[in-house]
């Protein structure tokens, strides 16, 4: 009987070992899936970043084109102004073309100042 008991015990132990091994394999598989998913997320993030950079370049190019067109239109309209105003307007346009960022910053500052003044006048 001892041999049968030992054989039964060995079979039960082998079954427990198989179950434990199956659980270990499943845990490893889950970990590998997470890593695979993280890699997919990383690839997707890179794709989104590339798309965003491309869109930003397109928007910047459109903004530049719009600004150039607006400046060209403003220069065309300067010629319709009275003679006394024409020369200062041309000088102003030259400054705008040479230092557009500075002019934009100044305009933004002026807008903020005007909004603050208007707010104070309503209070």
Work out the helicity level: over 70%
Which radius of gyration do the C-alpha atoms yield? 37 Å
Mean pLDDT: 86
Strand pairing plus helix content: what structural class?
mainly alpha
- State the low-pLDDT regions, or none: none
Note the total helix count: 3
Beta strand % = under 5%
Helix-strand pattern, N to C?
HHH
Distance between the termini: 102 Å
Number of strands: 0
Largest sheet: none
Protein name: DUF3618 domain-containing protein
InterPro entries: DUF3618
Keywords: Membrane, Transmembrane, Transmembrane helix
3D structure, described in words:
This is DUF3618 domain-containing protein. Keywords: Membrane, Transmembrane, Transmembrane helix. InterPro entries: DUF3618. This protein has 123 residues and is mostly helical. It is 94% helix and 0% strand. It is built from 3 helices and no strands. The longest helix is centred in the first third of the chain and has 77 residues. It is rod-shaped, with a radius of gyration of 37 Å. The mean pLDDT is 86.
């Amino acid at each position: 009987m001892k041999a049968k008991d030992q054989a039964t015990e060995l079979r039960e132990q082998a079954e427990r070992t198989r179950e434990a091994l199956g659980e270990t394999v499943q845990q490893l598989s889950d970990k590998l899936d997470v890593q695979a998913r993280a890699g997919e997320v990383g690839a997707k993030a890179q794709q989104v970043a590339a798309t965003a950079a491309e869109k930003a370049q397109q928007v910047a190019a459109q903004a530049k084109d719009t600004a150039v067109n607006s400046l060209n239109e403003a220069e065309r309209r300067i010629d319709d102004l009275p003679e006394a105003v024409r020369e200062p307007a041309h000088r102003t346009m030259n400054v705008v073309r040479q230092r557009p960022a500075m002019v934009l910053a100044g305009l933004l500052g002026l807008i903020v100042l005007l909004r603050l003044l208007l707010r104070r006048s309503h209070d």
